[in-house]
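1st attempt posting a full record on here, be nice pls
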Amino acid sequence: MGRYLIAWFPMILIAVANGALREAWLVPRLGEHPAGQVSTLLLIALFALYIAFVTRAWPIATAGQALAIGALWLVLTLAFEFMLGRFVSGLSWREMLAEYNLAAGRLWSLVPIWVAAAPYLFYRLWRTG
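the predicted structure (as tokens):
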């Protein structure tokens, strides 16, 4: 599990690069809300490429291990997101939780769902492929 813990850290860099792209290129062209939606979907795609690479390089042994990796990555992702939002960006809990409102067109909740599910999905894909 240690290598999968280490493998989570580059996802921070991917997310930061995605956020920089959103602010520099997407927001001026699309506006804040649509840029956030596009950026969220792009981040999921970038994570898919990265997680595919990681799980190909370090094959997951069992379904249980895949679920454990997903749970680990989910906890790390949420902890990082809320710590950064609260203590670095100074966002309120209400502001941060608003990003999870799918009914308002906020797609961000799909990112932690993907981070949690992807190890298992790639485990299944590589087993059958």
